[in-house]
């Protein structure tokens, strides 16, 4: 999950009617720093009130809250309110600190944020494959590609992100390391055989459990049925192929395990809100950091 040249910070200043209940996305970014000049103080910043979630991809930084100090290394985040009694900075002589972050206004989401923070702590560990981190990456991708262009889309992402933090905080068993062994085996098999996936009957037989037991335990542990999990894996792989290759739609459908392009397009549209063709054509349009207005 290295950053490479994929860095950028995107700010949002949308206006919306006061009578609408919308969450407010302030900024989302990916950055890599290696200078002690990188230092923020929660009491001296002038852009609050804000909620900050910052997640380390590689390297490490330091987060201080009151008298507590934390090393924020890979797969660790910190959660803070601005203004507030905290500081975070790059430690002199340390390895390059690569991270993602999101800044949100507290209106509407503060109780949910506080609930998640009280359960996880202010410097929680989250796997890179966890739902909150996958969603944070997706929000950055959407901003990077110029697709967060109105307050409704921005509000939806903010609410989704804080909701995923709450889900992770309240039900960590939803994370893979807490899944029952048979569920992990099923997920691993799907992850590696999505292109020629066998039926639920065959999968359950392979694992030595009844298909009803597998369906029930898989859904309880992951929040998805095996079929929903399979479709998500396939669409994630299709998105990668659309971004990184010139393969045609029919070929991509075949590569990820769908019998035909028309059904693949139908599933892709249902899960992403757009067709594979429009998804591909929208890639790479935005290469510079930018502030969006309506």
From TrEMBL:
Positions in coiled-coil regions: none
Record-given protein name: HTH araC/xylS-type domain-containing protein
Top-rank lineage group of the source organism: Bacteria
tRNA processing among keywords: no
Keywords, ordered alphabetically: Activator, DNA-binding, Transcription, Transcription regulation
Pfam family, one: AraC_binding
InterPro entries referenced in this protein's UniProt entry, alphabetically: AraC-bd (IPR003313), AraC_XylS_family_regulators (IPR050204), Homeodomain-like_sf (IPR009057), HTH-like (IPR037923), HTH_AraC (IPR018060), HTH_AraC-typ_CS (IPR018062), Tscrpt_reg_AraC-type_HTH (IPR020449)
Residue stretches making up the HTH araC/xylS-type domain: 184-282
